[in-house]
Specification:
Elements: E1 11-15, H1 17-30, E2 35-39, H2 41-46, H3 49-57, E3 65-68, H4 71-81, E4 86-88, H5 95-104, E5 107-110, H6 113-124, E6 132-137, H7 149-160, E7 166-171, H8 184-198, E8 207-209, H9 213-218, E9 226-227, E10 253-265, E11 270-271, E12 277-278, E13 283-288, E14 305-310, E15 313-318, E16 328-331, E17 342-349, E18 352-354, H10 356-362, H11 367-372, E19 379-382
Parallel strand pairs: 1-19, 2-3, 2-9, 3-4, 4-5, 5-6, 6-7, 7-8
Antiparallel strand pairs: 1-10, 10-13, 10-17, 11-12, 13-16, 14-15, 14-17, 17-18
GO molecular function, one term: pyridoxal phosphate binding
Active site: 41 (proton acceptor), 273 (proton acceptor)
Cofactor: pyridoxal 5'-phosphate
Length: 383
Amino acid sequence: MVSTPPVDAHSWAEIDLAAVQHNFRRARHYAPDSRLCAVIKANAYGHGVEPIARALSNELRGGDCFAVATLAEARRVYQALGLRDILILRGPVNAAELTEILATGFMWVMHSPWQAELLKAELAKGMVFQPLRIWVKTNTGMNRLGMSPQAFAEIWPWLKNLPQQKSLTLMSHFATADEPDKPLAAEQLQNFYALADSVTLDPQTDGMSLSASAGILAWPSAQFSMCRPGIMLYGASPMVGEHGPAFGLQPVMNLKSRLVTINEVAAGDSIGYGATYHCQQDMRVGIIGIGYGDGYPRHAPSGTPVLIHAAGKVYEAPLAGRVSMDMLTVDLTGIPAVPGDEVLLWGQGWGSQLPAERIADLCQTIAYELFCQVTSRVKFIYQ
């Protein structure tokens, strides 16, 4: 991918739409017998939901769909693409939202008995809705969203016996699929099987969904009829200690800036706020035009790498000192850089990669957060 940096941007994110399509196909490769629900919540994990959704829509097959967190997000995708095959993962938060969801024909998650009561009230009005498309979320061990087995035992038969045309999906969510050595995921899988066995599932109309990205990669026995790839679509690995390329994934967001200037700093002098970094020798220090005001993590420690394209080659340079709102400082020892040279903060460029997971590990966070916190000051370029 060849890019031309915008002359008016101090920092920019190149979004590789071919890469997100490639990653969707990798999800299909790992779960060949499942339909796919592409998760594009939180503005497509910070990548821009409209262009990401358009790119992925070209990859969808019959029975595939999108997933978002809220009705507002579903509206945004519907307005961009005109598609109704959108799952609202949080479901309706009140009766007004449920009325709109039913009228529009979106799929939605029923995770609590009070939502079943909302549906009863809506159906009692006698209005004719499009087919009900409900994913019933159960708590198999994560203890977040999901109804209890006791509530499920009452609500699923009630839904099955409704006279309306409908499709139902039994769903849950892994808590530790990204760490296969922990026993909880296996316990959740058994709990999920037990819930399925406790009711009558119609294979023609009823679905089952447990696996998101980590389940797709590490739990083939838990893929069922529908899988929900999320972070893997954006090129990052969901697995603890692994990077996306290990699974054939390609970075989608390539976050870049450029060197603003270069300073000569004497041995013994300090750099940046708090004077936390002290030069052990005379140093060339590069100032990069990106900071936490752009979404780069303020808590990135000294030593966190960036890639600099200088004199036709790619060099790795470590952060030297605290991240500022608008700038980073890096050690340019041995790097023939000049002001204006481009810098990669994470992603890929010039034939080299700097996985977001590597930066996230150093910052004691996850790539999901890095992607989602990039701010509007960064110019997005879709390619």
